[in-house]
Amino acid sequence: MWLPLTAMALILPRLPNPDQLTNSLDALQNAQLTNGSWDNDVYTTALALRAFQITHNPDLAQITGTIIDGQTGSPLSGVTIQLSGTDTQITNSLGEFNFLSLLAGNYTLQISTNLTSEIQLKPGQNINLGQIRLFTETTNIQGTITDTSTQTPLPGVAIQITGHNDTIHTDEQGAYIITQLTPGEVILQATLDGYLTASTTLTLTADTTHIVSLTLSPDQAILEGIISDGSQQNVVLAGAKIYIDSTQLAQTDTNGKYRIEGLASGTHNINIELHGYDSLTGTITTPSNTTITLTSQLHPTGTTPTTRQCQHHRQNH
């Protein structure tokens, strides 16, 4: 029964003469149970009473409308609609709202938090506001990513924003721009191979372009040290070759010193060779932004002891 009752409650305000549904109203009256209800159902009873109320008071008015997405045209459910002096409504799955049984007078209609309208209702008036478009407030972020040491722009940096699925990359000038972001607190993260990841937290406000420029530090370490003769005291070895991961990266000078800059952080194989001496092989771990000092001793061919002398210490940059 509730479907015809719903239709009756909606149709009655639109009729110039509600008496046109007299037969239906008589049938509705006859369907009332002895306990005063209809079908012993609260909702059905409420609809029936509304139908009778409209019939008895044709001066009642109503306001209806539909909320849709301003960009896609899709109906928006869950939108809060407030009408002064009445209850608050939430749009249904079709984006619809309807305020029924309203007295004549002035009302303020507020949709969500950003749209307000003043409405004057006349007795029995039915105002259909039609489709009301809501546009999402958005904001933008743009900036430039550069090298901390050289200040040169870095192309190809991956920029990610929390809550934003797409990854944006900087162009040849190290610049980027991200549009159509929702206002609120976000974390921006910049990532590039060979560099330490940088991130920042910021609060985005609507209708604003935020400038966020970051610098990236190379994900590198420095390896340095002195190579000496393990069979003699205070004798340094010049010309010793230092190999990292099978590639020669340095050679000791006349003071037995060497220095390797720009070494990628991580674990590496190291090999030190000099003609007439046993080679020294091992592994070394170089954390980011540190200087590793590796002091080693080589022994003449065939004389290397079981325990080699090799010392190293780390210094943070």
Q: What's a quick, concise take on this entry?
A:
This protein has helices at about 1-10, 20-30, 40-55; strands spanning about 60-70, 80-85, 90, 95-100, 105-110, 115-120, 125-135, 140-145, 160, 165-170, 175-180, 185-190, 200-205, 210, 215, 220-230, 240-245, 245-250, 255-265, 265-275, 280-285, 290-300, 310-315. With about 325 residues, it is mainly β.
Kindly describe this structure.
The chain has about 325 residues and is mostly beta strands. It folds into 4 domains: about 1-60, no CATH class; about 60-130, Immunoglobulin-like (Sandwich), CATH 2.60.40.1120; about 140-215, Carboxypeptidase-like, regulatory domain (Immunoglobulin-like); about 220-315, Immunoglobulin-like (Sandwich), CATH 2.60.40.1120. The chain has 3 helices and 23 strands. The protein has a 4-stranded antiparallel beta sheet, with no helix packed on it. A hairpin with a 2-residue loop joins strand 9 and strand 10. Helix 1 (about 1-10) runs parallel beside helix 3 (about 40-55). The radius of gyration is 40 Å and the shape is rod-shaped. This is PEGA domain-containing protein. Pfam families: CarbopepD_reg_2, CarboxypepD_reg, PEGA. Keywords: Signal. GO terms for molecular function: carbohydrate binding.
